[in-house]
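One chain shown below:
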Amino acid sequence: MADDGQRHGDRATPVTRPPWARTLTEAVWFPAVLFLGFLFCFAPALHSPRPHHAHVVVAGRAAAHEVDAVLERAQPGGFDITAVGDAAAARRAVRDRTAVGGFAPGDRPVLFVAKANGASLEQALTTAFTQVTGGRSGQLAVRDVAPTVSEDRMGTTLVYFGIAWNVPGYILATTLLRAASFDRRRKLLAILGVSALFSLVGYAVGAGLGYLPHNPVTLLLAFLLTTAVATFGTGLAPFTRRFFPAVGMTLFIVLSIPTSGGAAPAAMLPPFFQYVHAVMPLANGVEALRSALYFGGAGTLGPVLVLCAWTAAGALLMGLDAWRHRHAARPDPAAEVQEPPVDDPSVEAPLPTALPVHRHHFGEPEPDLVGTVRDPHERPVPGALVTVLGPGGRQLVSTLTNARGAYAVTGLPEGHLSVVASVQGREPAVRRTLLGSGEVVRADFLLRDRHGAAPAGGCARD
């Protein structure tokens, strides 16, 4: 064993990084997903809002047929016209949210609209039915059957509050990934508590500033929205693993915000995005709030059921993950370093973290420090404790070697570090190493028996 010092030199040595192309790919894949998502969701959905199969009722069967013909020539596919009995029925259809507009022809034609559905939809309906009445706006009386509060002239404030309850729900799911000491029950309790707090504060601010009506049902709907997003995100994370940030942002930001009904109400979105609007938690939270606050509760049940379905799906995923772990073989702590929680790169800074020791997979963090722990006979030492200390002696991270005696750590700061390897029955070994930017450092150890005379090749300091 005279050459131990040569094979396991005291100084940790740099290791070559993966090829630059793979490193670049892994660095840009997440921004690329968001870039393409924004490009193909926001622009197509919002670049030119106009009615797409907007449901409008018209008083009288003959009048409905005539209006349908005029609007189909002016805006093909823009409106779906249905006949109702009279003007009262047309107004009631808008109040019940079964139609976005109601038209009663006659000497003094009346158009029933709802500002709460969005001012842009109101304007689109007014423009279209001005054409129906011969192009003279003075002939058309416009009646707003669901006016908004005075501070919400565009009818879009609910969307902004919905975003405030939706996006933090997703962020809460990502931050709970780092709560390693929380079991699933504690995570659910944290979600419920934070959702209640956010709904209370949001309602107090909105109602206090006059942006929202003073209606306590807002508390319940806001709570349901945040809970749905946070619970589903928490349940989804173990299955999407390192791709969770991209999946979560795609669901709860890229797809949700343009289809929420803010810049363009649902009736003015292209058909594909109308389908997305029907299932997204943000859109359904906003629709539930509109129904409850401005339409007397009409149409609230459907969106509430969708939010409950998202929550139930998240709870089901969490239960499925628990079942998967219960029925899997209990891992040997010496067999493999457990994979760390997934971090959301949009909200988390790199932290010292143990990594699983296996062939590098796409999307996984790359190690900063790798090595093996062996005995004087070159046999791997499984279950050895490897501890990394910072310049001031503060412990940064610790991990256990796997069955091959290997370990890996990422997220370490640049500068001088101390690495300690120890296992019961052997003398501990210490290395000091300098970690530079963009480097991978290897620190291998030989642990001699406490009562033997074997050489301690890895025990020297630099």
